[in-house]
Amino acid sequence: MLRTLFLALIVTGAYSHLATGGLAQRYDHSKLDVKISVAEGLLNGPTDGRIVLMFAPNGTDVLNDTDVTSSQNKIFGKNVFSLGDKDTVTFSGGSNFSTETGVYGWPDVSLDAIPPATYRVQAFLTKYEKVTRSDGSTVSVHFPCGDGAPNVDATGSLFTSAVDVDVVGGTQTINLTFNNVTAGEEFIGKEIGGCNQGNYEDTENLKHVKIRSKKLSEFWGRDMYVGANVVLPAGYSANDTKTRYPVIYAQGHWPADEGAFGYGRPAAQYVKFADAWNNGTIPGTNTTAARPAPKMILVTFRHEAPFYDDSYAVNTANLGPYGDAINDELIPFLEDTFNTIRAPYARIQQGGSTGGWESIASVIFRPDLFGACFSSYPDSLDFHRHQDIELYTAANAYVRADGSFVPSIRTFDDNGTEVVLATVALENHWELTFGTASRSFNQWDIWNAVFGVQGYNNYPLEPWDKVTGEIYPAAVEYWKPMDLSNYIVSNWNNSKNLGVNLAGRIYVYVGTWDDYFLNEGVVEFQKRTDAVGGQGWANVTILPEKPHGGNYQSREIWDYLELLENWIKDHAPDGKTPLKQSVSGPKTRGNMWEEVIRRGGRQAAVARQGPPSIETKGHVKVGTEVRASVGRWDPGVALKAQWVIDGKPSCEAFKVKESDKVKYTPEKKGQLQLWVTGSKRNYATETRKSNSVTVGK
Ligand SMILES: *[C@@H]1O[C@H](CO)[C@@H](O)[C@H](O)[C@H]1NC(C)=O
Ligand SMILES: *[C@@H]1O[C@H](CO)[C@@H](O)[C@H](O)[C@H]1NC(C)=O
Ligand SMILES: *[C@@H]1O[C@H](CO)[C@@H](O)[C@H](O)[C@H]1NC(C)=O
Ligand SMILES: *[C@@H]1O[C@H](CO)[C@@H](O)[C@H](O)[C@H]1NC(C)=O
Ligand SMILES: *[C@@H]1O[C@H](CO)[C@@H](O)[C@H](O)[C@H]1NC(C)=O
Ligand SMILES: *[C@@H]1O[C@H](CO)[C@@H](O)[C@H](O)[C@H]1NC(C)=O
Ligand SMILES: *[C@@H]1O[C@H](CO)[C@@H](O)[C@H](O)[C@H]1NC(C)=O
Ligand SMILES: *[C@@H]1O[C@H](CO)[C@@H](O)[C@H](O)[C@H]1NC(C)=O
Ligand SMILES: *[C@@H]1O[C@H](CO)[C@@H](O)[C@H](O)[C@H]1NC(C)=O
Ligand SMILES: *[C@@H]1O[C@H](CO)[C@@H](O)[C@H](O)[C@H]1NC(C)=O
Ligand SMILES: *[C@@H]1O[C@H](CO)[C@@H](O)[C@H](O)[C@H]1NC(C)=O
Q1: Ranges for all domains in the chain classified under CATH 3.40.50.1820
Q2: What CATH number does the domain located at 188-382+483-603 have?
Q3: Each residue of 504-545: pLDDT tens digit?
Q4: Would residue 395 be called left, alpha or beta, if left means φ above 0 and alpha means ψ between -120 and 50 degrees?
Q5: Atom of ligand 1 at shortest distance to CA of 166?
Q6: Which CATH superfamily is 609-696 part of?
Q7: One Pfam family from the UniProt entry (predicted)?
Q8: H/E/C letters for each residue in 495-527?
Q9: Location of each CATH 2.60.40.10 domain in the chain
């Protein structure tokens, strides 16, 4: 109860920006400053990046708990541009409306509002690399380095010593110095390339593969890699190329140490499991398995990317051709290296959450490559519910029409009562401290990058204002090709013929108590695909009172692997229901890179723009009305117009909307123009001038 009340209070504060138009009056005094300098020799050249400054409760390591649901830290973020080692960065104020250049504080806090007490204080600099993409746009982003892209303290980050500080509540300056670099892991494997995707040592059962992606390297203008961890079944012999195995492609986050099926770097559990399975013993028991061992290869991917710990395994305008890199470069390499069965029925996609979305999207976009997906509690399949946000119809992503806050993370207590752990507003504001322009390496931002197109500012065209939550329907419109039920229905009958071709190949599972409300998007997906395909077109299982996590249909892993194996057997050429070649033809393919970048890259962003235009033709007489349009701008750009005669304002600037037609009756002679100034968070403010018309007698 207390927590919910607390959330409501702080979110109300944030939401009030909408009404007041800014925060300046709330934080117009400046008491506590933090000045951060850089020890000599730590930066090799001018550096762009994000500084994250944290105040943790006395005696607590600042990185001990930075989670949105539980952190007691006060977290501040500020961008730096061309930082040199003679420069000092000053943090003051906070919750700055300008997140591009100002200080953003969480939870909705200014430095001046930090209660007097003792804190442990430390700052970190995430370094960005300025790159020019193949479509000509230049961006400053962080490229991860074999560490799964944490949102702070990533490999290569600068950090200050942690200091214990008494915040006194009056005028005070805290001095910090970046004096160290986060070392990251020491890589010992024999794979190619630097730290991107890491380098790991092979064991008998577990092989690591990494290739330089030609397509990604070309797109980013630097070397880019994709990797895979390959678990081989016991008895596998590289020389026995006659014995070939189906492959389970297990999608998910960066495969770090240990973890569940589809996660663990050495996929430790799976290795143990594969051993036991092959020896006929059910893991953790001494029970002999009822069935002989399945012989399958398990593959997890390493595709840490700018923006997140993985790329979502599809082609996107903001991350580049990761779908092609994985499916057309890495998988062929795996198939040349290992004895796999090279046919769709023997390539299965599975995963949960992020991996749930990746696995279903992989099959929906590439029916020519993969046989089926077993997708568990996937990220929103249908944006009628993006988590709990009614993205197509709501006006605000944070606050509903009735004034209540949209929840983002929940749990259920012993009595089955829902307890909200974070709202969408709280979580988005928390993300903002780690990066602006969708660069926080957190969940809502990676969705913006993957589902949306590139904005005119070269960063993801965000679907709503990250501070206020105001939704921009025109930006949401660009998400539609990544709304998977919309994609299926749109391609139901055409040359892709997905209604026929994907039938019987899509399995989805979710629980009604999903921690992130992902059950809601699954319900929408089921409703829309059932409406065109008949009930059960997609095999959707919704289990009551199951939270986020676990295997498909909450099965034991043994049971689950048998299910996968049976699907493969049934759909093999000699199986009960062989997968027809016609359903896996090349025409079924979607998410083509050329289309994605044409629709979502720089050229498309430029083509969306237009200058204001005076529509009245010919000579205009003093005292007669002229009409003009205000130009075309990206969604969310706030516009102010002004009439100008002979280069001098002839009226006050006034607010306009993109759809407005504006009118003016010039009172004097001269060259008349309409100037329109557009401004948006993270965009350069720009004034565009219309054609000029002559006003005469
Ligand atoms: C801060 O924590 C330390 C132990 O870590 C303790 O000795 C000290 O008294 C605490 N200071 C305050 C003001 O609570
Ligand atoms: C880390 O946080 C946990 C719980 O939030 C706390 O019990 C523990 O003492 C903290 N450890 C350090 C080193 O700060
Ligand atoms: C917000 O940031 C702008 C740009 O850096 C700065 O001019 C302004 O003083 C800041 N306001 C507050 C309240 O921090
Ligand atoms: C911080 O550094 C400035 C000079 O850069 C110095 O004048 C000031 O005394 C320092 N403050 C503290 C608390 O060390
Ligand atoms: C840098 O940080 C590492 C890890 O915390 C530490 O072992 C090392 O002593 C630090 N180096 C300096 C110069 O402070
Ligand atoms: C596989 O073949 C290679 C060379 O063809 C040979 O060196 C190796 O010993 C063989 N391995 C096995 C397990 O037979
Ligand atoms: C299973 O057999 C393999 C050899 O094929 C052996 O290395 C492994 O230790 C055995 N695992 C178990 C759990 O008995
Ligand atoms: C399996 O059998 C071994 C040896 O008999 C015993 O030590 C172990 O506890 C048993 N494990 C289980 C899970 O029953
Ligand atoms: C569950 O309900 C019981 C009986 O009403 C109550 O005593 C208990 O505190 C509740 N538990 C929680 C976690 O709310
Ligand atoms: C399939 O095609 C028919 C005829 O072209 C059309 O009437 C129908 O609406 C289409 N169905 C879908 C789901 O697109
Ligand atoms: C859906 O899939 C499950 C296995 O996950 C299977 O038991 C069930 O029969 C399938 N339902 C239909 C209608 O095919």
Answers
A1: 188-382+483-603
A2: 3.40.50.1820
A3: 999 999 999 999 999 999 999 999 999 999 999 999 999 999
A4: alpha
A5: 13
A6: Immunoglobulins (2.60.40.10)
A7: Esterase
A8: CCCHHHHCCCCEEEEEECCCCCCHHHHHHHHHH
A9: 609-696
Report the residue count for the chain: 697
How far, in Å, is the centroid of ligand 5 from the Cα of 230? 35
pLDDT in tens, 664-678: 999 999 999 999 999
Q: At what angle do helices 424-434 and 2-20 cross, to 10 degrees?
A: 70
User: What is the C-alpha separation between 190 and 184, in angstroms, rounded?
Assistant: 18
Which protein residue's CA is at the shortest distance from atom 11 of ligand 3?
96
CA angle, 296 as apex, 294 and 300 as ends, to 5°?
A: 135
Q: Which residues pair with 487 in a beta bridge?
A: none
> Residue 303 C-alpha to ligand 2 middle, in angstroms?
31
Task: Check: CB of residue 296 under 8 Å from CB of residue 248.
Answer: yes
pTM of the model: 0.91
pLDDT at 326: 98
Ligand 7 pocket, residue 276 CB under 6 Å: yes
Cα–Cα distances (Å) from 491 to 226, 478, 495, 529, 559, in that order, read 30, 17, 8, 12, 34
- What are the tokens at 400? 């509903």
User: CB-side exposure of 412: number of CA atoms within 13 Å?
Assistant: 16
Other C-beta atoms within 10 Å of 416: how many? 8
Q: Which positions of the chain have pLDDT values less than 50?
A: 1-29, 257-267
CA-nearest residue, atom 10 of ligand 6 = 239
In sequence order, what are the residues at sequence separation of 6 or more whose Cβ sits closer than 8 angstroms to the Cβ of residue 563?
Answer: 374, 552, 555
Q: Is residue 675 a contact partner of residue 687, using CB atoms and an 8 Å limit?
A: yes
- In the reported structure, the alpha carbon of residue 53 is separated from the centroid of ligand 4 by a whole-number distance in angstroms of 18
Whose tokens are 């300098």? That residue is 37
Q: Given this model, what pLDDT does residue 24 score?
A: 33
Q: Is 257 in the pocket of ligand 9 (CB under 6 A)?
A: no
